[in-house]
Amino acid sequence: MIILVGIAAFCATLLGGVFALRLKDRLHLILGFSAGAVVGVAFFDLMPEALELSGVAPAFVTALMALGFGIYLLLDRLIILHHDEEEEGAHSHALMRGAWGAGTLSFHSFLDGLGIGFAFQASPAVGLVVAAAVLAHDFSDGINTVSMIVKNGGSRTSALRWLAIDAAAPVIGIAVASMIAISSSQLGLLLAVFAGFFLYIGASDLLPESYHAHPVRWTTLSTLVGMGFIYVVIKLAGV
């Protein structure tokens, strides 16, 4: 059963990425949707899971979320850097930022796989519920990963390469989970940090880029649709 779940996660992520590539001429709408989806995952998936699993005071969990946001901000501004398009080397820095964002999304997918594996260790019933929640937003994960590469000037080949990495990440996570043990509280704290990462990616990177030189009305609508989509599928997966 768990092998089938891994295959399903792989295919769902690939389908989302291919969808984003085929609609490249509507990238601003896809970026708007991706921004909403990434923020939605943070608010509706990662934050609730972190609060539930960590077993510590909510104030500490939210502080970790803020820490994650701050860490990503520092890495983006001080290490990866923001450059104007006219500056020398701007393209290479943009590619680096795209790879960093896609890598973070892929690591989140790896954590999803870990969550599935640990849940199945608890019981098959719990494992299926967790797997349903992961599969529900894997399609959006594929869209988000491709969007991060394309909007930062990456090639189709680079986008497909990162899409393959993201698609394989939950499968690897499931395999790793079968070999190690981690407490639910530790996983919850890690998810809190990644919630901060995702809030930064969505609000400070994808969202501003989506409405740059494009009508705000439609990109705003696509962002709200992205958030609503994640909310609905997570709720349905929890039924």
Concise account of the structure shown:
With 239 residues, the protein is mainly alpha-helical. It is built from eight helices and no strands.
- Decide which structural class fits the backbone: mainly alpha
Hey, roughly how much beta strand do the residues contain?
under 5%
Give the fraction of residues assigned to helices: over 70%
Domain tally: 1
Rg, please? 17 Å
Query: How many E strands?
Result: 0
Oligomer designation: single chain
Low-confidence parts:
81-86
Global shape:
globular
Q: What's the overall average pLDDT, rounded? A: 79
Biggest sheet statistics: none
Order of helices and strands: HHHHHHHH
| Through-space gap between termini | 20 Å
How many individual helices? 8
Topology:
Blueprint: H1 2-22, H2 27-54, H3 58-80, H4 90-122, H5 124-151, H6 156-177, H7 184-210, H8 216-237
Helix pairs in contact: 1-5, 1-6, 2-3, 2-5, 2-7, 2-8, 3-7, 4-5, 4-6, 4-7, 5-6, 5-8
Explained architecture:
The protein is mainly α and 239 residues long. It has one domain (2-237). 85% of the residues lie in helices and 0% in strands. It is built from eight helices and no strands. It has helices at residues 2-22, 27-54, 58-80, 90-122, 124-151, 156-177, 184-210, 216-237. The longest helix is centred in the middle third of the chain and has 33 residues, at 90-122. Residues 81-86 have low confidence and may be disordered.
